[in-house]
Amino acid sequence: MAEVEADADGTIGAEFGDEVLEAAPVKSDDVKDKSSDAYHAKVTAKAGTTAGLVTGLIKELRPKQWVKNVLVLAVPFGAGEILNPGVLWHSVVAFIVFSMAASGIYFVNDAIDVEADRQHPTKRNRPIAAGLIPVPIAYAVCVLLLGGSLLISAVTSMQLLAVMAVYIAVQLGYCFGLKHQPVIDLCIVASGFLLRAIAGGAAANLVITQWFYLIVAFGSLFMVAGKRYAEVKLAAETGAKIRKSLKAYSPSYLRFVWAIAAAITIMCYALWAYAIQEDESSRWGLISIIPMVIAILRYAVDIDKGVAGEPEEVVLKDKVLMVLGVILAGCLFLAFYL
């Protein structure tokens, strides 16, 4: 049986507390097994204590997910302005407000799904479901995070405020039901990556070619559809638990989506590379097409094998992809800054 890649809570395709189909849980007394009663008892033992509340708040922020927000640096880098202190500072602000907004969404989602999570063998260990964070406090922290994100954005620039308002509205819509709509859910998850890239440019008031945004948009769709394809494929082969909403997709349909998205991403990147040659009088942009295409084909191998998870996890586990990423970044750096 193939090894099943799952999220931190052990659920294939679980995002923002989605309902899942799962096999009957196997009873275990192993305190390291997140589905065991022993592990759950260890987590809930801190409920009602200050230490438990602090620990729960930090865990619920999910700081490991903030790595995705590094994408706000993409536009400043692609615009050749990443070494400008003022631009870099605005990019840092964009990173902070996106991290605040994303964490706020986690709080509201888990507060909404608290009762369902308590019936789940692993989600019951989430801070809110485990009682470490009372639901009223979760909503209060959510308001503070989302409100603070919008306030800081407004002080920085109205363009950034507009981007953050759209991001928060879309993500709340996803939590309140759009995640169950086929195709819409793919587009919403992919839009999160695109909005991060747009925020980096909006914060510093930078303008960049439309080809760049098309690359990010279809590249994101490629990764999201690939992740869904891997989830559906693995579930079919192993009988692993899976979100009910994923049943709307067949492996052939998701293969069709990620294949088209990959082709459009490569085409848009090639067009952008030629534009770089004209604008920067550098061949390094054209040379960067080589590692870009190889990286997409390499990533597609992971998708096809059914092991593609979160994009950042796929890249960090694949040393060849990491090397290709460094080469690609190096080529673009030489094109823009030499």
Helical fraction? 55-70%
Question: End-to-end span in angstroms?
Answer: 51 Å
Strand order of the largest sheet: 1-2
Structural class: mainly alpha
Q: CATH superfamily assignment of the largest domain? A: UbiA prenyltransferase
Q: In terms of quaternary structure, what is this?
A: single chain
CATH architectural category of the largest domain? Orthogonal Bundle
Order of helices and strands: EHHHHHHHHHEHHHHH
Overall pLDDT metric: 84
Q: Could you explain how this protein is built, in words?
A:
With 338 residues, this protein is mainly α. The protein has 2 domains: 46-207, Tetracycline Repressor, domain 2, CATH 1.10.357; 209-338. It is 66% helix and 1% strand. It has 14 helices and 2 strands, in the order βαααααααααβααααα. It has helices at 37-44, 50-61, 74-78, 85-112, 114-118, 135-156, 158-175, 184-203, 210-238, 251-280, 284-287, 289-305, 311-317, 319-337; strands at residues 20-21, 242-243. Strands 1-2 form a two-stranded antiparallel ribbon. α4 runs antiparallel to α6 (135-156). The longest helix is centred in the last third of the chain and has 30 residues, at 251-280. The termini are far apart. Mean pLDDT is 84; it is low at 1-26. One of its GO terms (cellular component) is membrane. It comes from Saccharopolyspora elongata. Keywords: Glycosyltransferase, Membrane, Transferase, Transmembrane, Transmembrane helix.
